[in-house]
Design goal:
By secondary structure, this protein is mainly alpha-helical. The chain has 2 domains: 506 residues, no CATH class; 156 residues, no CATH class. The chain is built from 36 helices and 6 strands. The longest helix is centred in the N-terminal third of the chain and has 36 residues. It is globular, with a radius of gyration of 31 Å. GO terms for molecular function: calcium-activated cation channel activity. It is a multi-pass membrane protein.
Length: 775
């Protein structure tokens, strides 16, 4: 178990590491040849150009202005200087609201920490319970004397913890209420003020029923002309182009290698580059690298042309889904938020993601298989979560002095040294857990993709939910249960069964020392490492040296990245969980959490302003998830405190805690009913206002031309292809306007009986349809 001295050593190591990262970043960002690494957002907006310096050649690579090094920490005030409205204009509402999560952490935990240190810490410290217990069977350290474990059984001092639990709950709920109100208002204002976007007029329709008389495109057009005659504008059916996308991706990869070998030959024209065609270029026939890649690209171009022809001529390539565009936002809102058919499983409509948010690969998944996929993913996640606890427990057992001595007894004399022991107990557990979870986000994202979600934003939100649950079960509960059992193993063996719950109740607060080490590794050094961007820095210079030939190549070599909601938000929520749980139990953890929120706010504000290029804009649609997870953490903290006090024989005070979870859940229900509709539905009043203003400003707007090609698969767009003219001819097929096709079912014109397939039941086609002549 880490002592106060071990925590001090760990703090020194992590503070030094964070300081080195921050100083290295401050120096590297000043160098001209790193400008595109640390300021890519401005380049993508065409608001920054490569720095030019006259004079010595070295000035192109190294900043020789020594005055700039004196101000090398100016990036911190610069990151805080941009006001929030300007930040929203610059980076979008998602980024601005994401930063507010860190501010919520500061708003909640700074007052809580002041109150806890002023009241609970003196109450805990002025007891001698652990000193007495230490003589018998319980392992503890000096830092645990600041926790609730140091209060004797049945003490009246537990009333102070009860009062603080109520104060912390009311303060947290107040902050959450104000933030929910603010973010909801920001979202509505953002939606009202943002410019025209295709997703404002477009609805994604899935599970279009098959029809023997009409194609999918004709059926979609007929259905919406009948049921939305005044508002339907056009549509784009969805093609299964996954194989074509793989071929295009493979061609791009080969082109990169071709550029690499061409650049290599240009630098040394006396020798042609050669390569081996076998596994990883280690075996196989030796061939001319440039000729080989040129021939492979030619073969791929033929395959791509054949695949495009197959998609164009094969009706089975069209999947039962379509992007349907409307003349007004009001019409799209009505369609997206209502049931279209008598059969609730057909003609399913939802707001279309914005074009860059669409995850095209999953649109080809049959809708009927989604339920089975969700079940498979749920089962797989269950086993991943609970079986992952075994290796985590094993790793944590090795990250202790006793564990290392058991596995490697020959190291006993080395690790028993005071300095080595402090490093192992104060630093090793946190870094071991951090490294062990490094591949988890990738695994969870693969699960979400298999589940069939159709937008990047929904993929990230679903992965974030699973990541949070995994952290709670494995990192939080697993560390407490496994760690407490390992630390108190001798006590468990030598006491009766009815004494074990008391020992656990006393041992749970003591795990705060482990979480303190984890916070310093992940929340201090980890956040500082985020701003250094070591991986993008290395990859940019490698690409710039081997692959870049044109300015476009240089832009593609930049890797600005994005917020990474699927990994960043669960990390923040884990700190909320730790802070709320330990606020009344071991308040000493709160300053470490506050440092994390403050440092992370500054770092990510800088990254959002200068680096990250967000892949999509959801107008803060993720906020209900953020609010719900903080509420969940609050309820968990209340339930755990009840369980802890019950082991402390605080029978007179424990029943008063029962009201807290009830009040918290009621508060969540209130916020859900009051504010959540703003995040899942678009008010018709707002839609009508925006439509009216647009008609007044742009009465001659060609909306059909604006929306016609917005949702064509990227591999079909002419702007995405750099192939020969034949490809441009093929593109015309995908970009042609859809023509009005009257129904081929003659009975639909003169009978009110609905179709058994489509469930539409109008007595006849509207006049608006009959006005169009047949092409």
């Amino acid at each position: 178990m880490a002592t106060l001295e071990d925590i001090g050593v760990a703090a020194a190591i992590n503070i030094l590491t964070a300081f080195i990262f921050l100083v290295a970043f401050a120096i590297l960002r000043l160098q001209p040849f790193n400008d595109r690494v640390y300021f890519p957002k401005w380049y993508l907006k065409n608001l920054r150009t490569d720095p030019t310096h006259s004079g010595a050649f070295v000035r192109k690579f190294v900043n020789l202005d020594f005055r700039s090094y004196i101000r090398f920490l100016n990036w911190m005030p610069d990151a805080l200087r941009m006001p929030e409205p300007a930040l929203i204009e610059h980076a979008g509402l998602d980024s601005a609201v994401y930063l507010r999560i860190y501010l919520i952490g500061l708003k909640i935990f700074v007052p809580i920490a002041l109150l806890a240190w002023a009241i609970l810490v003196p109450v805990n410290w002025t007891n001698r319970t652990l000193e007495i217990e230490k003589l018998s069977n319980v392992t503890s350290s000096d830092i645990d004397k600041l926790s609730i474990s140091n209060i004797p059984l049945g003490s009246q001092r537990f009333w102070s913890h009860l009062a603080m639990a109520y104060a912390f709950t009311f303060w947290t709920c107040y902050v959450l209420l104000k933030e929910y109100e603010t973010v909801a208002s920001m979202r509505l204002q953002f939606l009202a003020s943002e410019g025209r976007r295709p997703d404002q007029f477009t609805v994604l329709v899935r599970n279009v029923p098959p029809d023997p008389d009409e194609s999918t495109s004709e059926l979609v057009e007929h259905f919406f002309l009948v049921n939305h005659p005044d508002h339907y504008l056009t549509h784009q059916v969805v093609y299964d182009a996954n194989k074509l996308a793989k071929l295009v991706k493979k061609k791009k990869k080969l082109q990169n290698w071709l550029v690499y070998y061409q650049n290599k030959y240009a630098r040394k024209s006396s020798t042609r580059p050669f390569m081996k065609t076998g596994f990883l270029g280690l075996c196989g026939n030796k061939v001319d690298a440039i000729d080989h890649h040129e021939s492979e690209i030619k073969k791929l171009l033929k395959e791509i042309a054949a695949e495009r022809e197959r998609i164009a001529n094969n009706p089975k390539s069209i999947i039962p889904a379509a992007f349907v565009a409307f003349k007004t936002r009001w019409g799209a809102a009505v369609c997206a938020q209502t049931q279209q058919s008598r059969n609730p499983t057909l003609w399913l409509t939802e707001w279309a993601p914005e074009p860059r948010d669409v995850f095209w690969k999953n649109l080809a998944i049959p809708y009927v298989s989604l339920t089975v996929r969700r079940l498979i993913v749920a089962v797989a996640f269950f086993f991943l979560t609970f079986f992952f606890m075994i290796p985590i427990t094993f790793v944590q057992s090795l990250a202790t002095i006793e564990g290392i001595e058991k596995v490697a007894p020959f190291l006993k004399h080395l690790i028993e040294k005071k300095s080595i022991k402090s490093i192992i107990q104060g630093f090793l557990p946190g870094i071991a857990l951090k490294l062990f979870l490094i591949f988890l986000p990738t695994i969870l994202m693969i699960m979400s993709k298999f589940e069939g979600l159709t937008s990047l934003s929904s993929l990230e939100r679903r992965s974030a939910s699973r990541y949070y649950l995994f952290n709670f079960v494995n990192v939080f509960l697993g560390s407490i249960i496994a760690g407490s059992a390992l630390d108190q193993l001798g006590s468990f063996i030598h006491q009766s069964a009815n004494e074990i719950p008391k020992t656990i109740g006393m041992a749970i607060p003591m795990r705060a020392t482990f979480f303190i080490t984890y916070i310093m590794v992940d929340g201090w050094a980890g956040i500082a490492g985020e701003i250094l961007m070591l991986k993008p820095l290395i990859f940019y210079h490698l690409k710039n040296f081997f692959l870049v030939k044109t300015e476009k190549d240089r832009e593609e070599a930049m890797d600005p990245g994005s917020l990474g909601f699927n990994t960043g938000e669960p990390r923040i929520q884990f700190y909320f969980l730790l802070g709320l749980v330990y606020a009344t139990v071991t308040p000493v953890i709160l300053p470490f959490i506050i440092i994390f929120f403050g440092l992370a706010y500054v770092v990510f504000r800088h990254q959002i302003i200068n680096v990250y290029n967000q892949e999509y804009e959801s107008a803060a649609a993720f906020w209900p998830d953020v609010h719900g997870r903080i509420i969940t953490a609050l309820v968990i903290s209340q339930v755990l405190l009840m369980g802890l006090l019950s082991t402390k024989e605080a029978a007179s005070s424990t029943p008063f805690l029962v009201a807290l979870p009830v009040l918290t859940i009621w508060f969540h229900k209130f916020c859900k009913g009051r504010y959540e509709p703003a995040f899942i539905r678009y008010p018709l009043q707002e839609a009508m206002m925006k439509d009216t203003l647009e008609r007044a400003k742009e009465p001659n707007l060609n909306l059909k031309g604006y929306l016609q090609n917005a949702y064509i698969h990227p591999v079909f767009k002419a702007s995405e292809d750099d192939e020969d003219e034949d490809d441009d001819v093929n593109n015309e097929m995908w970009e042609n306007e859809s023509v009005i096709v009257p129904t081929k079912r003659q009975s639909r014109r003169n009978t009110p009986v609905p179709s058994k397939v489509s469930d539409a039941s109008p007595p006849s086609l509207p006049e608006a349809v009959q006005e169009h002549p047949q092409p």
